[in-house]
Amino acid sequence: MSTPFYVSPQQAMADRAEYARKGIARGRSLVVLQYADGIVFVGENPSRALHKFSEIYDRIGFAAAGKYNEYENLRIGGVRYADLRGYTYDRDDVTARGLANVYAQTLGTIFSSAGEKPYEVELVVAEVGESPDGDQIYRLPHDGSIVDEHGSVAVGGSSEQISSYLDQRHREGMTLAEALKLAVQALSRDTNGGEREIPAERLEVAVLDRTRPQQRKFKRIVGGQLSRLLDAEAGGSGPASGSGGPEESGDSGDSGDSGKKDAGGDGSEGDA
Amino acid sequence: MEANTRDTGRLPAAFLTPGSSSFMDFLSGHAPDMLPGKRSVPPLQGAVEAPHGTTIVGVTFPGGVVLAGDRRATMGNMIAQRDIEKVFPADEYSAVGIAGTAGLAVEMVKLFQLELEHFEKVEGAQLSLEGKANRLSTMIRSNLAMAMQGLAVVPLFAGYDVDRGKGRIFSYDVTGGRSEETGFSSTGSGSVFARSAMKKLYRDDLTEEQATTLVVQALYDAADDDSATGGPDVARKIYPIVTVITEDGFRRLTDDESSGIARSIIEHRLERPDGPRAALL
Q: B-chain residues within 8 Å CB-CB of A101?
């Protein structure tokens, strides 16, 4: 009878963590930022159909980097969890904290069970509050830990570098256009310090907008509205007082969209 | 029924099983006891006493559809509630009005709303209007055992068909049978009177404003002849719920708007208690 090789638990866990980290690093980064009226999700995504961001519930959004099939699975699980909870109790009883806990338990159990391949995903669960103080952003790495983030967070490939860039420049009360500009700047920075251009068609942008009159605050920003916001940013970057301009254009887009549902983004696109 | 109380606290397997975009399918696998249709009712002698909602009317007009309901719920010959709400948004482009057992109907609407929202979130696209109407059909059919005990729910479903660019109305029977109505339809105890009124007043070139007036006229006529349908209650400021669905989505008329319509109708009925006169030929 042959004895199996001894692998120390530390080594086994380190191997699994490295495996997951490498998988996540292959994906493109994405950032989640607070702005004055809510939370904005920005990422580079060449696909129009396979989303990185999505709505979980009224005030809760989801963002993920890593392997698509794995985070899609978790996303649907989260939607089911939230809908079941809201159906059982009340819509107000669905919270980002509860959801983040369930995700953390799920990721943690999968990560530490020897029989399963660790998930190569890093999630962000965000909830928009009535005021900026009530906003919550949770980052969930592959191993089942939860990090309570404030202001800005980046996940995916070069997240550390992007995070530190954001930490230095992000401030409270930014307008949507300012936050979007900062996010795009952060994402355009290459791993080796260079900068590259990310065209608007390759950007996926969504917001949890607390000023939306509907119960469901999640909204994708696409097409005309997105390019208007990006243009406003280019013009508004010179004069600091230009912040009123971009905000206005963002708001007018929102209010024009207020009667629409954000189904796959085409509703808002047609309106923009 | 908590989702995350199983041993490790991780999401149970049912939550992570890919496949269905339907919340009802998920529920029937994971928590079947929460589905309304899965309950059994012991055989009973006679009818069950529970509040019943009454009349719902719907009218299409070029560019949309109007769905409205009175505010009364009855239990036998008593008025159970004066200000019940029986017309609900199903999603941004559709609404459902319910007649029948109020408790079951409200639960059915809640599940129906969630079913549509769940699909939209999982798939990233809305169901077609036909798809929504069929889903409601299935839900009514699952309530058949209850309906046989006298606890029927008979909704009227109206929506704006984004693909065809027009408003549509679907009516149902207790067995879940579905039929699309052209022009106008009604359901509930006062539906016969409401339908007759609409038959005389309906034209296919109504404006949105005329269509909202027409439904309130029809509800007034239903309340006139059916004891279970409530008319506008001026003293208590309880007016019919009127909703409009157009390209811009669902909108419920404010209390001011619906009271304005109701008051002007009452004003005219002081002159002619039977309402507007239709041409003889």
A: 4, 9
Terminus-to-terminus CA distance in chain A, angstroms?
A: 71
CATH code for the domain in which residue B96 is found: 3.60.20.10
Residue B160: which pLDDT band, with cuts at 50, 70 and 90? very high
Which stretches of chain B sit within 8 Å of chain A by CB? 1-4, 8-11, 14-16, 18, 23, 26-27, 30-31, 34, 91-93, 110-111, 114, 117-118, 120-122, 124-126, 248-249, 251
Per-residue confidence at A114, pLDDT binned at 50, 70, 90? confident
pLDDT of residue A233: 54
Q: Rounded mean pLDDT of chain A?
A: 84
Number of domains in chain B: 1
DSSP assignment of B30-77 equals H-GGGSGGG------SS-----EE--EEEEEETTEEEEEE---EEETT
**Residue B110 within any structural domain of the chain:** yes
Task: Identify whether B246 is a catalytic site residue.
Answer: no
Phi-psi label, residue B100: left if phi above 0, alpha if psi -120 to 50, beta otherwise: left
Residues found in chain B:
281
- Paired tokens of B231: 């008319």
Q: What is the pLDDT of residues B196-209, one digit of tens each?
A: 999 999 999 999 99
CATH of domain A27-271: 3.60.20.10
Domain membership of residue B151 (yes or no) is yes
Residue B4 lies in a domain: no
**Amino acid letter, A185:** Q
How many helices and strands, by DSSP H and E, does chain A display? 8, 10
- pTM here is 0.87
Read off the pLDDT band of B9 (50, 70, 90).
confident
Which residue is catalytic, options B5, B8, B17, B54? B54
Nearest to A260 among B8, B92, B124 (CB): B92
Residue A11 has pLDDT above 80, yes or no: yes
Query: Average pLDDT of B211-236?
Result: 96
Q: Which of A50, A73, A87 to mutate to test the interface with B (most CBs of B within 10 A)?
A: A87
Summarize pLDDT for A201-220 with one digit per residue, the tens. Answer: 899 999 999 999 889 999 99
Chain A interface residues (partner B, CB cutoff 8 A) = 49, 51, 54-56, 73-74, 76-77, 79-81, 83-88, 98, 101-103, 105-106, 108-110, 216, 259-261, 263-264
- Domain spans of chain A? 27-271
For residue B109, being part of any structural domain is answered with: yes
Can you give the residue range of the structural domain that contains B248? 51-271
Q: How confident is the model at residue B3 (pLDDT cuts 50, 70, 90)?
A: very low
CA-to-CA dists, residue A154 to A78, A108, A133, A200, B119, angstroms: 21, 20, 20, 19, 29
pLDDT at residue B135, as a whole number: 95
- With contact defined as beta carbons under 8 Å apart, do A261 and B162 qualify? no
Question: Which residue among B11, B30, B248 sits closest to A102, beta carbon to beta carbon?
Answer: B11
